[in-house]
Specification:
- This protein is α/β, with parallel strands linked by helices and 438 residues long.
- The chain folds into 2 domains: 196 residues, NAD(P)-binding Rossmann-like Domain (Rossmann fold); 240 residues, Rossmann fold.
- The chain is 44% helix and 14% strand.
- The strands form 3 sheets. The protein has a 6-stranded parallel β-sheet with strand order 3-2-1-4-5-6, sandwiched between helices. Strands 11-10-9-12-13-14 form a 6-stranded parallel β-sheet.
Length: 438
């Protein structure tokens, strides 16, 4: 089939490459000519495992190309995927300006039947509005809007595109549903669950999933604070309750909480829409989740300041990690950088090392060129993004580089016993029992 992908950043680039891998002819369109040129050269504009080889393979074969010109995709594509950003506005609601701009640009160019498949995360009720606008812009063309939410995890975008754990299609049109089944024929043939539903349910599924995951993360972080206060071990607690099949162990890792470009803004948008619809119980629940998440970052910063004797002024702090999670260079809403900024604001001299992410635009925070430089003469080290590289460090090799061998493991992923044996004092929030050991 002929498939167009509108928007080619994190979601769009992976989706376009995935559609080509499924055997379709694909054109990606983007307003950024620099990004388009880079993608046409088979190179990725982001760090995402496996994406660049996929782009290179299919741009070389001619199955995939990119353009800034909507006229090249309008009546060419049988399906147009909308993959543009929906960032958080000042009110917390989703900013749909990029979605609406795509509709206003594409709509007048359409003259034949086509399916518009929304993948961007939008407030419930958006799809019917877009359908009405396409009916105005392309009367009689036979445009059908469906909603096909994305469930990509950054650092796993390629795998999640090629081997999704479910495919959701919201539509009112049997013909459009048949078209989408044809688009996803390959994963459907591999028994990937296929959920056909109404538009509202499809729009809600993505934000419901994110809200549930955010709630689970905030719950275990609240329990980490309880364990710290009572003298317990949150990791053992999570292991034990995770054996309960009704709960499960995934997303029960205590630490700094969630961040990134999706979870925080998606749950904020869901809360805003819930308030608009009068479902205040949901917005109140999300508000509590957000408060716990913010508190967890402050907890780590306060632990560092406490470890420095209550005053961070002029002290040297090394931070391991800048990306919001390992496997990506994305620093949007990064818990690690939030903590680093808090410490810089408290007067500390903060250096951050990350193997992929840049920190050049973070006020008061200096980028370390190497992990060794990050340790040099530090009064306290903070482990805030769980890159495998940091778990592979030899603590004995670094104990003499620092002014004070004190480590705060904000992600609870390092081998505390190994670091202690090398002469480090290790603090793991929520593991007060372990912290008391000599």
């Amino acid at each position: 089939m002929r498939v167009a992908v509108i928007g080619t950043n994190y979601l769009g680039a992976a989706h376009a490459a995935g559609m080509a891998e499924f055997g379709h002819e694909v054109i990606g369109v983007d307003v950024d000519p620099t990004r388009v040129a880079t993608l046409n050269a088979g190179r990725s504009t982001i760090f995402e495992e496996g994406l660049e080889p996929l782009l290179e393979r299919h741009t070389s074969s001619g199955r995939l190309r990119f353009t800034t010109d909507y006229t090249e995709i309008a009546d060419w594509a049988e399906v147009h995927f909308v993959c543009v950003g929906t960032p958080q506005s000042d009110t917390g609601a989703a900013d749909l300006s990029q979605v609406r701009a795509a509709v206003e640009t594409l709509g007048p160019l359409l003259t034949r039947p086509t399916v518009i498949a929304g993948k961007s995360t939008v407030p419930v009720g958006t799809a019917p509005q877009l359908q009405a606008r396409f009916d105005e812009l392309a009367p009689g063309a036979g445009v059908e809007v469906v909603w096909n939410p994305e469930f990509l995890r950054e650092s796993h975008a390629v795998a999640d595109t090629l081997r999704p754990d479910r495919i959701v299609i919201g539509t009112r049109s049997p013909d459009a549903l048949a078209t989408m089944r044809a688009v996803y024929a390959m994963p459907i043939s591999e028994n990937v669950p296929f959920v056909a539903c109404d538009l509202a349910t499809a729009e809600l599924i993505k934000v419901a999933a994110n809200a549930f995951l955010a709630t689970k993360i905030s719950f275990i972080n609240a329990m980490a604070q309880m364990c710290q206060a009572a003298g317990g071990d949150v990791t053992l607690l999570a292991d034990a309750i995770g054996y309960d099949k009704r709960i499960g162990r995934e997303f029960l890792n205590a630490g700094l909480g969630f961040g990134g470009g999706c979870l925080p803004k998606d749950i904020a948008a869901l809360s805003a829409r819930a308030n608009e619809l009068g479902v205040t119980v949901l917005s109140e629940l999300i508000g509590a989740v957000q408060d716990i998440n913010a508190d967890q970052r402050r907890e780590i910063a306060d632990l560092a300041i406490e470890a420095l004797g209550g005053d961070a002024t002029g002290r040297r702090v090394g931070v391991l990690g800048a990306a919001f999670k390992p496997g990506t260079d994305d620093t949007r809403n990064s818990p690690a950088l939030t903590v680093a900024t808090m410490l810089a604001d408290a007067g500390a001299s903060v250096r951050v090392f990350d193997p992929q992410a840049s920190v050049v635009e973070v006020p008061g925070v200096e980028a370390a060129a190497t992990v060794e430089e990050c340790f040099d003469n530090s009064d306290v080290m903070l482990h805030l993004t769980e890159w495998p590289l940091f778990r592979q460090l030899d603590p004995a090799a670094f104990v003499t580089r620092v002014a004070n061998p004190l480590l705060i493991d904000g992600r609870l992923k390092l081998d505390a016993d190994l670091w202690r044996a090398a002469g480090w004092t290790v603090v793991q929030p929520g593991r007060a029992v372990r912290d008391e050991r000599p």
